[in-house]
Design a protein that fits this description.
single chain; mainly alpha
């Protein structure tokens, strides 16, 4: 277990970084600031966060995101289900194409390149790579770099440049805080997370509480909202957790792989942003929400970005939930089909 002094210094540095970027009015400031500050500290000395910090942050983040699903909002998201499904398939297929670029740049075998490039989430793709007998460390590094590229680029670009359309159909009124209700939801959500974790689902600490909050909000029985300071604390925990991975040895151990991951992530981001713009125009949905929904970032990070920018959180979360399910269902079979056809 890391020394308490190391954990305390890391937490203080992460919070300070988040507070600084908040003062500068940077979108998703607490998470990005915590990540950058922790990474800077990690370059010079050991860093660590308590093992419970990220799961605890995800529990309250899941409750906060699920609370945005009132009955009418859930109906609106359900009505967009064909678009969610089509977008998820397109995102996975786009990753399949970009895998060729990644393989050439990184010098990996095509199968490893496939698991590195498809935007299925760090945990999901690492698990699938392990099942296929490929390097989990390589896939984890590449997927982590992809998430970092998206986290550092999408929030400021969308906050400053993207047009903000009408998202009222996907916005629910905020609920007042009632601590007994909030703590009761957190305990129940935590209990729901354990079976999801045993089932091997990615992000169980977020999905369990989120599912509970959606059910309560959609039926009009949500006992409490989630206060902004708790969501900010969740951002700090997630940012610090990402930052602890960016040690000197991590970044210098495979420069070619890191560069390949950054370039392929940028190409995939531009490709999916263009596709999202076209789908939004055709479906009459808000462009920024579609761009975030199809962004090749992690589900918690993109949902947080939507919440920070007030960009139809339920719709963005719906996109990433759908893609997570599709990745679990399709990536394995796609890998086997690619092997049979000689594409991997």
């Amino acid at each position: 277990m890391p020394p308490l002094r190391t954990q305390f210094l890391t937490a203080c540095t992460a919070a300070l970084g988040g507070a600084l970027l908040t003062l500068l009015q940077v979108p998703l400031a607490w998470m990005i600031g915590a990540m950058v500050a922790t990474a800077a500290l990690a370059w010079h000395r050991p860093v660590a966060v308590p093992g419970w910090a990220r799961p605890a942050g995800l529990v309250f983040l899941g409750l906060g995101l699920g609370a945005t699903f009132s009955g009418p909002v859930l109906a609106a998201v359900t009505g967009a289900l064909p678009v969610l499904l089509a977008s998820g398939v397109i995102a996975i297929a786009s990753g399949f194409l970009v895998a060729r670029l990644f393989t050439r740049l990184a010098g990996t075998d095509p199968q490893t390149g496939f698991f590195c490039a498809v935007p299925g989430g760090v945990i999901v793709m690492a698990m699938l790579a392990q099942e296929a007998g490929k390097s989990v460390a390589t896939v984890t590094l590449a997927q982590t770099m992809r998430v970092l590229v998206v986290v550092l680029s999408f929030p400021p670009l969308l906050g400053w440049l993207a047009p903000h359309g009408d998202v009222s159909a996907f916005m629910a009124p905020r609920q007042p805080l009632w601590w007994p209700g909030l703590l009761g939801m957190a305990a129940a959500g935590l209990l729901l997370a354990f079976p999801l974790r045993k089932a091997g689902l990615a992000n169980p600490w977020m999905l369990g509480p989120c599912g509970l909050a959606i059910a309560l909000a959609a039926t009009g029985h949500l006992p409490s909202g989630v206060p902004v300071p708790l969501v900010d604390a969740a951002q700090v925990a997630m940012g610090a957790s990402l930052g602890t991975r960016l040690t000197r040895s991590f970044l210098l151990s495979s420069r070619r792989l890191a560069v390949a991951a950054v370039i392929s992530a940028a190409v995939l981001s531009l490709l999916l942003a263009a596709i999202a713009w076209a789908i939004a125009w055709a479906a009459g949905l808000p462009v920024p929400a579609l761009i975030l929904g199809m962004a090749p970032g992690g589900m918690p990070e993109m949902a947080l970005t939507a919440k920070a920018l007030e960009l139809a959180v339920p719709l963005v979360l719906g996109f990433h939930l759908t893609r997570t399910v599709l990745c679990n269902l399709l990536v394995g079979p796609l890998h086997r089909i690619g092997l049979r056809l000689g594409l991997l």
